[in-house]
Design goal:
Structural class: alpha+beta
Distance between the termini: 57 Å
Number of domains: 3
Radius of gyration: 26 Å
Strand content: 25-35%
CATH class of the largest domain: Mainly Beta
CATH architecture of the largest domain: Distorted Sandwich
Number of strands: 34
Shape: globular
CATH topology of the largest domain: Beta-galactosidase, Chain A, domain 5
Bound molecules: 1-deoxynojirimycin, calcium ion
Length: 686
Amino acid sequence: MRKLISIFIIAINLVSCNSKLPTDSLQINSPNNNLQLSFFLTENNTPAYTVIHKNNFIIDTSTIAIVLKNAPELKEKFSIIESNKNSFDETWEPIWGENKEIRNNYNELRVHLQEKTELKREFFIVFKIFNDGVGFRYEFPKQKHLNEVIILDEQTQFHLTGDHTAWWIPADFDSYEYHYTKSRVTEINAVDAGYEQRHDRHSNNLKAVNTPVTLKTDDGLYLSFHEANLTNYSGMTLAVKDDFILQSELVPALDGNTVKVQTPFITPWRTIQIAEKAGDLISSNLILNLNEPNVLENTSWIKPMKYNGVWWEIHIGKSSWDYGTGKHGANTANTKKYIDFAAKNNIHGVLVEGWNTGWKDWGDKTFSLTEPYPDFDIAEIVRYGKEKGVELIGHHETFGNVALYDSIVDSAFKYYSDLGIQNVKTGYAAGLLPQEFHHGQYMVNHYRKVVELAAKYHINVDVHEPIKATGIRRTYPNMMTQEGVKGMEYNAWGNGNPPDHTTIIPFTRCLGGPIDYTPGIFDIKFESEKKDQYVRSTLAKQLVLYVVLYSPLQMVADLPENYENIPAFQFIKDVPTDWDQTLVLNGEIGEFISIARKEKNTENWFVGSITNEEARELTISLDFLNEGKQYIAKVYSDADNTHWESKPTLYAVKEQEVSKNSELILSLAAGGGCAISIHLITKQNN
Ligand code: NOJ
Ligand code: CA
């Protein structure tokens, strides 16, 4: 009887929910029927959509409009010419990543719209409804009254159904390097939240955010808004409007013409990830699935790996990028020291910054990418590294001079490629020349050109000060990793990253794709170099970042001497950068998170939990292990008195036998973590 009543209640809910929608609305469900998208035209014949999750509206009537230059906006007086539905289900294998296989399963609604007015302009809206969210984009065919198109703004709405809690950073047209703020959506305001007002960089709208932006409803549902496949278009920020509406605002161009395109063209996907558990946002492959398959024929040269390098020592002030300072870090002997250390410790790349001429007076914006400083014997370094199985990772810092970089990038990649260098970190650490924004169409196209050119030379890239990650790595798997976050370097200057930062970014920034956070600092206080600076983390938590913050190029960032004779370094030696499977075991945004990952092509698992400022106990079930097998778990945990501020380097290591039936109780110190490596007990071990 109780069952009957609840069925009846569900039925009533459905009716009351859907009664808000026009009777002729087009509807499509997710494959598991938990989500329902409806498309319709409003009274003014403006295209609009809603999304229902298990009978509750999560996106209320949201309209779509595009503002054009020298032409009426595309907003009203549309009619639906035709609509089609399709289903799709495939499983594909990424070249590298968090999972060996990815299922791409959705239902599609394709709506052909045309204006009823004289211009009869037309476009398609394509919706893809997955079990974990929705993606939609606009496709413009070639047509008489839309040829050369200048888009001044796109007004795509996401009409929320309440004043949800948001984790956000301000809409800055140049940077994602911020700490996140938690507030209600209506309280989003960059100045009120204490962000420095940068009129040159922020959108004019202080009530706007960069994406991904992640929300939690009072009912405990998680939503994250972003974009996928950002190609030949401008980056999207989201502005808070009245009535809980988030509306897209595109990053402008210098000449005021935000996006210049020609029909036929398609926009990036606008994405809504929807999850009942915070961790399911991380397990979602929606962003990757909305990107095009790999276009590179030969990918044998693309290899995930750990790397170290002449980097942290510069940031903490021990050495310098500039040759003229008398403490130039990028010299042959110093680089060989890093190579020797890498060769001994399962690290396969060494990054060297400050190797090339142009670092004098940071910022005069002239540099060469083919002329090493006299104390850097690049050919000898490459030879030495190869002999030891360690590759030199190149560095292209552009100081923001994109015009100069554009003119030399081909020869710069050729130079590296001729030397046998296959990985390059790029950087745009300053205002740009020409004075475009980092996230406008001009730069979106520049960043893409660099990835494509790098692929031509069989070079993988790690981009700092990048355009946001939108899943391009699927199409160009040499697009390995990116910054676009306040990474480790912020602990070497400024106020440093607070302990909760790394418990927020897995649910926000990392939803876009891999992150070059550069973890692994063991000398947490580095008092001999910069007295006031330190890392707000325990040593054990540093280990866990290799599991929680995914990157196929993962830095072992500290100085070699700081790892010597530290048993916890064994975890970093062992941890891989490419995985068969990823499971998010638990997590709450800004509080804690636990992830388990299975190493590619082995039976080894690596598990890690981290916490914010609060010490806590977490119970982890190992039910993901194989039935009937015994394993050894090596547990690297905070010790009894560990605390991120007072005693960050205290930790304990213990080994225990575990199986599928085991549960581990992990004690995390304030600002701490617990890292576990799990290996099958083989007959030999027995
Ligand atoms: C900023 C980058 O994030 C950092 O990693 C690099 O060392 C400096 N720019 C210099 O290129
Ligand atoms: Ca940076």
